[in-house]
Design a protein that fits this description.
Length: about 375
């Protein structure tokens, strides 16, 4: 089988626009599932990648595998190919592949990555399914609102104007907003762009971003969901890294670099120094309960005392995943009536604006 030619054109376009490659988690699961199963069947890595390439239909993943085929044909290891795409493959995945290459068990390493990704995909699916209902309702409401404002209200306003009647307050208010946006759309866009850029600058500053994320983690419902989701991911990843034989300090370093939330990255980076000073893992965790609940620290301490850290991390991941599922269901239970109330208020406002205007017009005729 001939080695496919890399899609250099699409890579050059992304490089020119400085756009990082992105790959859905589901596609990564597909990639590692195919590679792990093929390697376990006893074929070489190069042959596995060639076969995997025929089963991949995602453009981004196809481009990545094409590049890997060229590099591995030239003698490069798989870990180097993964490291070329830091926006696609995490430090954890690269570290596990490197450990597998050193120990001659790349198939086992890929299978461990697959198991971790499947757990994360399941977690992600639970969060998305919880938020899907209110998002769909709000999108449909926005579409209805747009139709009413752009097509219905101007028609009613024209009728009032033809009859020489004054516009009711609600109708005039909504039409005033529409006219302002239509007349000064460039100013509205400039304001939105300015606010977006200001928000970007706030998040780019590490200190300010940490403060913002800490505030979000302390919010009653959202903070709890994000905290449990993050700690579940940390437990899954930490357990996988230790099981693969990666040293404790290197595992913490990989964990820290893979965290999107800076408070957790900062905590994991600080843990290494505390452990070198003689503290245990559970003692080196942050005492801030908005980051690490007390039960998480206690369970880790039990795992250290019984010398079964990997097993305990797996149990923590299962427990937190179960509790997260319950919390998401509770969140949905609260969110659904709130969404319905919001929709009812908006529909009532539309009805008051439209039907009230028609009633005023009929009253003026009489």
């Amino acid at each position: 089988m001939n080695t496919p030619t890399p899609d250099i054109f699409s890579q050059d376009i992304r490089t020119f626009l400085r756009l990082p490659m992105r790959l859905p988690l589901r596609q990564k699961v597909v990639f590692f599932r195919v590679i792990a199963s093929l390697l376990q069947s006893g074929i070489t890595l190069l042959a596995a990648l060639k076969l995997a390439r025929t089963k991949i239909h995602n453009q981004t993943l196809s481009t990545i595998v094409d590049r890997m085929l060229v590099d591995i044909s030239a003698g490069s290891p798989l870990s180097r190919g993964l490291r070329l795409y830091p926006s696609v493959f995490t430090e954890e995945e690269v570290g596990l592949v490197e450990a597998g290459e050193r120990s001659g068990s790349l198939d086992i390493a890929c299978n461990r990555i697959l198991e971790t990704l499947e757990k994360k995909l399941e977690l992600q699916s639970k969060v998305i399914s919880t938020l899907m209902y209110p998002i769909i309702i709000l999108v449909l409401l926005a579409i209805v609102f747009g139709i009413v404002v752009v097509y219905v209200l101007p028609t009613i306003a024209q009728i009032f104007e033809n009859q020489g009647a004054s516009l009711p307050f609600a109708l005039g208010f909504m039409l005033g907003i529409v006219e302002f946006v239509q007349k000064y759309w460039y100013a509205v866009l400039a304001i939105l762009a300015g606010l977006s850029y200001l928000g970007y600058l706030q998040l780019k500053d590490r200190t300010k971003r940490i403060k913002i994320e800490r505030i979000l983690l302390k919010t009653p419902i959202y903070g709890s969901i994000i905290r449990r989701s993050t700690l579940t991911g940390i437990a899954i990843t930490f357990s996988t890294l230790l099981e693969a034989g990666i040293p404790m300090m290197q595992s913490l370093d990989i964990l820290a670099r893979s965290q999107r939330l800076l408070p957790y990255r900062e905590m994991l980076e600080g843990m290494k120094g505390k452990i070198l000073e003689g503290q245990s893992i559970s003692q080196s965790l942050s005492k801030d309960i908005s980051l690490v609940p007390e039960d998480f620290r206690e369970l880790l301490a039990i795992g250290e005392q019984t010398a079964s850290m990997q097993e305990m991390l797996g149990k923590i991941a299962k427990q937190y995943s179960f509790e997260l599922e319950i919390e998401l269901k509770n969140f949905t239970t609260i969110l659904e009536p709130l969404t319905l109330v919001f929709v009812a208020v908006m529909i009532g406002f539309f009805a008051f604006s439209v039907l009230g205007s028609i009633f005023d017009l009929l009253t003026s005729f009489s």
